[in-house]
Amino acid sequence: MALFRKKSIETLIKETSQKSVTLKKELGAFDLTMLGIGAIIGTGIFVLTGVAAAEHAGPALVISFVMSAIACVFAALCYAEFASTVPVSGSAYTYSYATFGELIAWILGWDLILEYGLASSAVAVGWSGYFQGFLEGFGIHLPKALSGAYDPAHGTYINIPAIFAVLLITLLITQGAKKSARFNAFMVILKLAIVILFIVVGVWYVKPENWTPFMPFGFQGVATGAATVFFAYIGFDAVSSAAEEVKNPQRNMPIGIITSLLICTVLYIVVSAILTGIVPYDQLNVTNPVAFALKFIHQDWVAGLISIGAIAGMTTVLLVMMYGQTRLFYAISRDGLLPKRLSRVSPEKNTPVFSSWVSFVAVSIFAGLIPLGQLAELTNIGTLFAFMTVSVGILYIRKNKMASNTGFKVPFVPVVPILAFVFCGYLVLQLPAITWQFFGIWLVIGLVVYFLYGRRHSGLNEQKPPMRKIG
């Protein structure tokens, strides 16, 4: 059936070298690990931890982070095998093309456009908040109308700092993967140093009595907290979008994905434990919980540095998400499901410059006009949907013996992919009904685009069926 026609793994890999101008292979395991940490540590740790503790989990926020981490580790193992087997741009979209066929691949690609686009927008809004706070420390105040999402009742119309952040990142990613990776590595080291500084300073002010009651909202609150802080782990899947620009992807992709996730999980658990140990959980419902905790214990000099760390953290998340968005457009366009211009690679920069600027326009519109809370929930549902599909995909390629003999292999199949699916499925059910409704509308729009444009322009239309013998 034409709707479920597939591209073999061999075809996908072959296509990456057919164009006269291709993406340049220049990233190693360290670059990928830094990209992963850059994508993961940001808005989640500097913004969402306070809300999740105050409204959902209390001191049991530690368990919420562990639950989200388990779901992510299982999904990360599945991503690592796919990235090793199919070292092609496009992440879960490309993997689905090889396993489930064109229509499912398109749905997942359309879903990932939502994920990367809204995640970029959400991070840009968070970046804007910390940046404005940083400027106010020097007595600089931006006009209220230009400092927040569209809300005439409160006098805000557009978030100019958020759009400015997106512009700077777009200018950077059009310069090439290696330059982006170097900038990212510098910013990651800076924010890791500041997170560790918080741990070293804060651990001496922990009061164990603040951890009682440990689970004030019951286990349901912990589960809802896990679904909320899941946003903090989004990003490692964006590492797989760099596959075509990686040296020795069979080795380096799994190292980058798994190492970055493990490092960030340990840091999240330690930070959340110290945070709720310093400040009673019911006082953490603030937009800058880490800096707030340091002011609470009168360590204002460290709190000032936290703002710099938060800005650096969100800058790297924005960089990796925007990078993933452009590579996704590139992959879908190369297959013909979106206009071909999106897959044109600049001969000078070896980057898809046009798709980078299309991403800039889309992300700027969302970042400039929509509040942070709505953006985060919509990003979560898109990511969880992608994780669940990739988990099922591993079962498919193993059953049909499509997996490569070299490279990374998910251990304990089918147990690990099934657990990834179940954990992610449980978390996605915790999200609000309005999030599901918007997600459904987005998928309907995607199906309309596919049947009006993608199906007719698909590269698979050019493949003639084999001639049958007569007589």
Question: Could you explain how this protein is built, in words?
Answer:
With 471 residues, the chain is mainly alpha-helical. The protein has a single domain (2-459), classed as Amino acid/polyamine transporter I (Up-down Bundle). The protein contains 17 helices and no strands. Helix 5 (92-99) packs parallel to helix 15 (372-399) and helix 6 (102-136) crosses helix 17 (433-457).
**Strand/helix succession:** HHHHHHHHHHHHHHHHH
Strand content: under 5%
Mean pLDDT: 84
Named CATH architecture: Up-down Bundle
Helix fraction by DSSP (H/I, runs of at least 4)? 55-70%
List keywords for this structure.
single chain; mainly alpha
Q: Nutshell version of this structure?
A:
The protein is built from 17 helices and no strands. With 471 residues, it is mainly alpha-helical.
Task: Annotate the secondary structure layout.
Blueprint: H1 9-15, H2 29-40, H3 43-57, H4 61-85, H5 92-99, H6 102-136, H7 160-173, H8 177-202, H9 218-229, H10 236-239, H11 249-278, H12 289-296, H13 300-334, H14 353-369, H15 372-399, H16 415-428, H17 433-457
Helix pairs in contact: 2-8, 2-11, 2-13, 3-9, 3-11, 4-9, 4-11, 4-15, 4-16, 5-6, 5-15, 6-7, 6-13, 6-14, 6-15, 6-17, 7-13, 7-14, 8-11, 8-13, 12-13, 13-14, 15-16, 15-17
